[in-house]
UniProtKB/TrEMBL annotation:
GO terms for cellular component: cytosol. GO terms for molecular function: ATP binding; glutamate-cysteine ligase activity; metal ion binding. The keyword DNA-binding does not apply. It catalyses: L-cysteine + L-glutamate + ATP = gamma-L-glutamyl-L-cysteine + ADP + phosphate + H(+). GO terms for biological process: glutathione biosynthetic process. This is Glutamate--cysteine ligase.
Length: 539
């Protein structure tokens, strides 16, 4: 049997998951959350105050940093096997930050930005004077020049997910793979990613929470959105403008698609994007971006899901080449402004089921034709997902593209996930996994239960603009139990205070010990070798 047969053949998911060895491995599933959110004033404007020192250094703090803008926070949990501990950690971070916000500020709970000023008034995140800090700032200047600052202020949630080694070893045996275990794991993570791309539109439908946007976001942009009121644009059936062509996208990157069919193809395409000069970007001067390539860095690659690996020594391209894929980062989650943390534990149960199902369901290689169908389907769901009787394009096994009702497609995916839910509930002696599927199924029977529908309904019923509603909800969350001072223990508070202090000291040390000129430092960072295996071995 060749490797393609092994990789893409169908396995009996129920029998595989009922294996004692597999079930024992499920407790070691790891997940982590990264949440981006903006500091705003009481007038729903971007904060003009620098990143508070009480939060530590945005450059070196492991859990509290900034994203694109100085006012755009990113709160990061460690990867954990204990879901409740992960959410407690996320709540502690929110509480710690909320207590240390400058007077009159709040945390903007939505994905689409608040009222935005002119581009030149949006401050890029400041990381100090070390070479590492200057690199991050130059990279963000490049993003601003390439895509505009407004787009970079779209925020979201990233859900990091990994299955344990013992799970993969059992699957390796089940599929009789000829690959080494390390290559097999990487191969199956790309298998998972392809299925997320195929079925990921369901995430936009169920959890999309950005059907409207403040009009300041679209100044100078062509669009087909309608006016909901004098301050807000919207689409009546939209689920996630963040995931639409008006959101976080790159037309330049779409000209050079990156393959997810296997690690070698992915790294080859990524190398090309990192080294190919872009006609659209080369005219920017040297101090306005890291380089003139299609991608300045690996992180610039946009997409709803990414293969990831953690490495302090190697840049991502070399680390993945040398060590393979460690986990996946699901990037298609909107901040839910009705939830204090932007995401719920029930949603996390659903995501674990979805990602595990994607790892086990058949996943043939993506063709150009199927990728075109996936892009079209995602845009339809993002902009028209709640439209009654909406039909989505679907590629059949005979390569014919047919139209299928969104409702039936969604219920079909959830039905296929029930086998996984039954095993998870039995293993963990709970009913929460099946309950999460039941809850999400209701949204296909009644689209008014989706967060996107709830937001539009409240805006219209209470005559609130997008910014007015998000301000109201964000203020409510500041007093929620998750953000109440009592919800963060003394130990957690002391730990975060210590981490903030240590991070400031570490940044100061980096700045004082700098030994190489930034231009030379940048030249080294921009050097790439196509033989990444050899390069990774010597770095």
């Amino acid at each position: 049997m060749n490797n393609n047969d092994v990789t893409y053949s169908e396995i009996d998911i129920q029998n595989f998951l009922n294996n004692d060895r597999v079930q024992a491995s499920l407790v070691d599933i790891r997940r982590g959350i990264e949440r981006e959110l903006i500091r705003t004033t009481e007038q729903s404007l971007l904060s003009g105050v620098p990143h508070p020192k009480a939060l530590g250094s945005a450059l070196t703090h492991p859990y509290i940093t900034t994203d694109f803008a100085e006012s755009q926070l990113e709160l990061v949990t460690a990867a954990m096997t204990d879901r409740s501990a992960m959410f407690n950690s996320l709540a502690s971070l929110h509480c710690f930050v909320a207590q240390r916000l400058p007077f009159g500020e709040m945390l903007w709970g939505a994905s689409m930005p608040p009222i935005l000023p002119n581009e030149e008034e949006i401050a890029i995140a400041n990381y100090g004077t070390s070479n590492a800090g200057l690199l991050k700032m130059r990279y963000r200047q490049g993003l601003a020049n390439r895509y505009g600052k407004r787009m970079q202020l779209i925020s979201g949630i990233h859900y990091n997910f990994s299955l344990p080694q013992s799970f993969w070893q059992a699957l390796h045996s089940e599929t009789h793979s000829d690959l080494s275990i390390d290559d097999f794991i990487s191969d199956r993570y790309f298998h998972l990613i392809r299925n997320v791309l195929r079925h990921g539109w369901i995430i936009a439908y169920l959890f999309g929470a950005s059907p409207a946007v403040d009009k300041s976001y679209l100044i100078g942009k062509e669009h087909t959105l309608a006016s909901l009121d004098e301050d807000s644009f919207y689409l009546p059936w939209a689920t996630s403008l963040r995931l639409s062509n008006l959101g976080y996208t790159s037309s330049e990157q779409s000209l050079y698609p990156v393959s997810f069919n296997n690690k070698q193809a992915y790294l080859s395409d990524l190398f090309t994007a990192l080294t190919r000069p872009s006609e659209r970007y080369t005219h920017f001067s040297g101090d306005q971006q890291l380089n003139g390539s299609v991608l300045q860095l690996e992180n610039e690659l946009y997409g709803s899901v990414r293969p990831k690996i953690v490495s302090d020594e190697l840049r991502p391209l070399y680390a993945m080449c040398h060590h393979g894929v460690q986990y996946v980062e699901l990037r298609s989650l909107d901040n839910n402004p009705y939830l204090p943390l932007g995401i719920s534990e029930e949603q996390s149960h659903f995501l674990d089921l979805f990602l595990t199902y994607c790892a086990l369901a058949p996943s043939p290689e993506l063709t150009e034709r199927e990728r075109t169908v996936i892009v079209r389907r995602q845009e339809l769901v993002a902009t028209r997902g709640r439209e009654p009787q909406l039909k989505l394009p679907s590629l059949q096994s005979n390569l014919e593209v047919v139209e299928e009702e969104l409702t039936q497609m969604g219920l079909g995916i959830i039905s296929s996930m029930r086998t996984v839910a039954l095993v998870f509930d039995e293993k963990f002696a709970t009913s929460q996994y099946q309950a999460s599927l039941d809850h999400e199924s209701e949204k296909f029977h009644n689209s008014e239960l989706t967060p996107s529908a709830m937001l539009l309904a409240q805006m219209q019923q209470e005559n609130l603009s997008h910014s007015a509603l998000i301000k109201q909800l964000s203020n409510e969350h500041l007093n929620h139990v998750h953000l109440d001072q009592k919800s963060i223990g003394i130990t957690e508070d002391e730990t975060l205070i210590q981490l903030a202090t240590e991070s400031l000291f570490k940044q100061a040390l980096m700045e004082s010990q700098q030994e190489i000129d930034f231009d030379d430092f940048l030249k080294q960072k921009n050097e790439l070798q196509r033989d990444c295996k050899q390069q990774a071995a010597v770095v």
